[in-house]
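Service request form, structural biology core

Requester: graduate student, group of Dr. S.
Request type: structure prediction, single chain
Budget code: on file
Notes: please return the result as structure tokens.

Sequence provided:
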Amino acid sequence: MKEITKKWFERAEQDLLVVEKIVDIQKVYDLSVFHLQQALEKALKGYIQEKLDIEPPKIHNLVGLLNLSELTLDEKNIRLLEDLNYLYLETRYPSSQQEVIDYFAETNIYEVYNNIKELVKWTKNKL
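Core staff response, request fulfilled:
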């Protein structure tokens, strides 16, 4: 594995560690979303760097990165990526904090955290 790929995955794991520490705090669900999105973004960029031997684009769209990587996911996980894309943008605006909290009133944040953690691991194992 290239050194740059290792760094991408180390950064992804750091984001997951942040979420592990704050996932219980509803008031900062927006920060959890931000770091969950970032963790998977960095894992996908690490995969692209290693497998396609190109510098990953400076984009934040998880579905776009997934498509570029040529990895495939089931519909449930693609919907999760779409949700994270949307919520990630919303975390930038203080007025949207309630929208993030409302999303997790219907969707278990621990389930999302575990899914993203598994997707990061799955991506790394595909190398």
